[in-house]
Amino acid sequence: MSTEEVEQEIDRVIGECAGAVSLCWEPRPEGVFDSTQAVTYVRAASDRLMSVLDAEADRRVDRMILWNVNKLADLRAQVKALPLIDYDKDDDELIRRADVLAALGDAP
User: Fold this and answer.
1) Hey, which bits of 1-108 come out as E strands?
2) pLDDT digit string (tens) for 70-103?
3) How far is CA 56 from the centre of its chain?
4) Sign, CA torsion 25/31/35/37
């Protein structure tokens, strides 16, 4: 779902809930229902929920970035522990540690 679709679905669910709970009164209220005011409340609740969802998404992205940074640091440490030059029998070529580090974004 796109962000806009999520927002529309949240608006719909909150709007339906607001309409349903407005009928929970005994006796039921009479008079004119102010739909403009109801939309204002629904929009405010939707905005707050979207804010919470955005913050949670940002937090998850931050955790993923940190995890990847840590994994990359571990990989770099492992590569730095390798011999300066190794021979890959499958590809019949020399593998230089400096080349692997350069591919990881480290200067040899």
Assistant:
1) 85-88, 93-96
2) 988 888 888 777 766 665 666 656 667 777 777 7
3) 7
4) negative
